[in-house]
Amino acid sequence: MPQLSLHGVVKTYGQTRALDGAGLDLRGGEIHALMGENGAGKSTLIRILAGLELPDAGQITFDGAAVCLTSPAAAEGLGLRFLHQELQIVPALSVAENMHLAHPYPSFGFGLVDWRALHAVTLAALDRLGVTHIDPTATMADLGPGDQMLTRIAATLIDTQGPRPWAYVLDEPTAALTGPEAERLFTALHTLRAAGHAILYVSHRMDEVLALSDRVTVLRDGRHVSTLMRDQVSRNQIIQDMTGRDFATLYPPANGEVGGAPLLDVRGLQSGLLRDIDFTLHAGEVLGLAGLSGSGRNHLLRALMGAVPRQGQVLVKGHGFGQSPAAAWAAGLAYVPRERRAEGLMLHQPLADTVALPHIPALSTAGFVRRLWITRLVARLAQAVRLKAQNQAQVAAELSGGNQQKVLFARALAGPPVVLLLDEPTRGVDVGAKFDIYATIRGLTAQGVGVVMVSSDLPELIGLSDRIGILQGGRLTQIIPAEGLTEGALLALCYEKEVA
Amino acid sequence: MVRFLRHYGTLIGMAAIVLVFWALLPDTFMTARNWLNITQQVSMLTVVAVAMTVVMVVGDFDLSVGSMASLSGIVAAVLFTMGWPVPVAVGAALVVGLAGGLVNGVLVSVIGILPFVATLATLTMYSGAAFILSGGKTIFGRDIPQSFADFAKSGLPLGSLGDKPVVLPWLTLLALAITGAVFVVLELSTYGRRLYAIGGNAEAARLAGVRVTWLRLTAYGFTGVGAAVAGLMYASRVASANPTQGEGLMLNAIAAVFLGMTVTRHGQPRVLASVLGVLVLGVMDNGLTQLQVDSYVREVLVGLIILLAVSISALGRKAIGRW
Q1: Least C-beta-crowded within 10 Å: which of A31, A32, A214, B97?
Q2: In this complex, do A358 and B211 lie within 8 Å of one another by their Cβ atoms?
Q3: How many interface pairs between A and B have CB atoms less than 8 angstroms apart?
Q4: Subunit contact B189:A368, Cβ cutoff 8 A
């Protein structure tokens, strides 16, 4: 069986070392799972495999011979195929046409499509994957995400002149799939494996990984930690390999005394898949929210902000408020959204405008903006969050990710807030800016501000939170003290329900 | 160099155009009288372009301004024929403009139709309404009150040059006043800052507590009123109203805003920049007319100027993106 190996791969972006001795090997006829925390380097390794990034150092060999993955075409030439979470599909075209986006259509000549042959070729390709329930003439948009993914895989099995597929890389393929859809995908993956293909399966879902894979490779901090066969692998072993570092020193110490007046009271909140959410946040407290993606963590913050409809009671300092972001800001909630570019920043406008926006009522008299007040406020806040920008008129698009995030923190601080809602506050932020952000959060809680924080970065969540709430499938199953909690224990709690 | 051209290309182009006309028309172009004339000629376009700027700040646009200008002129003229007093008829025409603008706003902001589709539909509706009301005919002569027609013919006396008096036309002053008012609203008021925020990132603005739906709707209201004012100005100027009088205003207004966006720092629509765009178009028109260039050739030239300015801006942005 052919084998593709990566060994000792190093990749540095600016100051950050994304990969520092990472590696894995893919063998035909085997499903290989790649695991690691956010930031462990999984995505970078995949980008290198795809020919999108060049490694700074390391060897890549195919059947023992050194190869260079210098471009996506080179990766395709080796038979590598990539399926991303967001599938590249044309929703308005049929399944058959979507499957032929990268292949020539069967034709009568003169550019006339031979529809009958097109559908026959499509059926044959689907059949090779063991998929019989998809109609080639169906419109792609009418298919569920699972079936769409199956058609994308089947499309690679259409006979063409080009290099034949040999290995498939699937990045979190089941994130958007229902249980039965995922089952169908697994069946298809077993079919591919039986045909001698290699599969690299990237997922956070422990149960899937344990059920599906023949071997598991774990990365941590850009390094290869372990590669274990299925019979050597246990849930605890994987969690230990994924975590297991001393992170106590990374986080500023908690303020100690927590349990002041209740700031935020949530009773029986329902929104989307969220059901019966109850919790109380006290002054000076950081409540972390943990859960797998799809557990409703991010949705909960959006529901509190009134960005999505909600039912149930939400009180800030004992008072209710209307269901709109405007009412939420006015009630003293401040929000740092997850997608800072899409949901937070006016990228091409002066950063001071973004900071001032939710606070315009307080920064104006008789309908006119008080420029001087804004300038003073932004100057003060920029210092508080250690924002590095040329001046207040600089546009956010020109700032680094960390400084963009600080602009949003400055905005959240301006109120000043009663309760701060943070969604992945340090995502895509460099280490230096992370420290500044942690210091800012601690400074706020010292002043009695309450914080609700969602983070996929478990060490961060444990290091900053006083209590941690576990969300599973839209329910807040438990709230536990963060002190003494290990990363492995927290991860196990997030997975708990899946086991039961 | 590219960066420089991107920011100042349109300004340099404007200066070059002025110099060329000055050289070719040494006696008539660079005179106070001609410039006052230009300001009067472009006053209607200025009002429409400034009103268009309001919706474009939000990231939308309004194709129906031209037919709204036609409709408002017709509404006023029809009411004149029915013997309504001038202020009431003018007020009614403005109310029609506001209502038409708000209809656009509801379609785009509340119902969620793309601005292009929604305002294309209302463009034909408002135009059709103007034809129905007027019976397809131009309304003129005794039906138009003298006081209404006189407005466009007079102005603020500035003194005299030789034996002829020089006046600053009321139309010019009105356009200036409206420009000033919209400038204050967009640049200084809380309303305007929120509109810019929506244009910058509507979802982020919503999450920051901006009432996006309502503000987009009202922006269309402003634009509708602006279009109606321009229609009334035109009707006053020609002492008549005709159901096609607003044709051409929409394309020129959008062109003017785009020309203006080439000079602003981050390519945003801004009021004073839009006025610069209007002046470029107005000066071109004035100079080429005086040179007796065929009007069809004129249209080709104006189109070329717009493409040139916007191309330099787009290329400049690409180059900056690469650095």
Answers
A1: A214
A2: no
A3: 86
A4: yes
Give the pTM: 0.79
Residues A287 and A142 in one domain: no
User: Mind telling me how many Å the CA of B270 is from chain A's nearest CA?
Assistant: 13
Q: What is the ipTM of this complex?
A: 0.83
Residues of B in contact with A335 (CB under 8 A): 207
Non-local (6+) Cβ contacts of A122 within 8 A are A95, A96, A99, A100, A136, A154, A158
Range of the domain at A419: 248-499
pLDDT tens for the 500 residues of chain A, in order: 678 999 999 998 776 778 888 989 999 999 999 988 767 888 889 989 988 888 999 999 998 888 888 888 888 888 898 887 666 788 899 999 999 888 888 888 888 889 999 999 999 999 988 888 999 999 998 888 888 888 988 888 887 777 788 899 998 887 777 778 888 899 999 999 999 999 999 887 777 888 899 999 999 888 898 898 988 888 778 877 877 644 445 576 666 566 678 999 999 999 989 999 999 999 999 999 998 877 889 999 999 999 999 999 999 999 999 999 999 999 999 999 988 888 999 988 899 999 999 999 999 999 999 999 999 999 999 998 888 888 998 888 888 788 899 999 999 999 889 999 999 998 777 667 777 888 899 989 989 999 999 988 888 898 899 999 999 888 999 999 988 888 788 888 887 754 44
A365: Cβ–Cβ under 8 A, 6 or more apart, which residues? none
Strand partners, A470: A290, A478
Which chain B residues contact residue A411 at CB under 8 A?
208
A262 shares a domain with A210: no
Q: Verify that A124 and A13 share a domain, yes or no.
A: yes
Instruction: Kindly state whether residues A285 and A190 are assigned to the same domain.
Output: no
Give the one of B197, B207, B211 whose C-beta lies nearest to A353's C-beta.
B197
Q: Kindly report the CATH number assigned to the domain that includes residue A174.
A: 3.40.50.300
- Count structural domains, chain A: 2
Residues of A in contact with B194 (CB under 8 A): 357, 360
- What is the distance between the alpha carbons of residues A186 and A202, in angstroms, rounded to a whole number? 13
* Same-domain check for residues A222 and A356: no
Co-location of A304 and A418 in the same domain: yes
Both A366 and A437 in one domain: the answer is: yes
Burial bucket for residue A211 (CB in 10 Å: 0-12, 13-18, 19+): exposed
Examine the fold and report which residue of A225, A242, A259 is the final residue of a domain before the chain moves on: A242
Which among B270, B102, B274 is positioned nearest to B188, based on CA atoms?
A: B270
Question: Which residues is A218 bridged to in the sheet?
Answer: A35, A226
Query: How far does B275 lie from chain A, in Å, by closest CA?
Result: 21
Separation in Å, CA of B54 to nearest CA in chain A: 17
Residue A264 sits in the same domain as residue A282: yes
A155/chain B closest Cα distance in angstroms: 34
Interface test with B, best of A336, A347, A357 (most B CBs within 10 A): A357
Asked if A353's CB is within 8 angstroms of B193's CB, the reply is yes
Count of Cβ atoms closer than 10 Å to residue A493 Cβ = 18
Domains in chain B (CATH in brackets) are 29-310 (1.10.3470)
∠ at Cα A211 (A191, A225), nearest 5°? 110
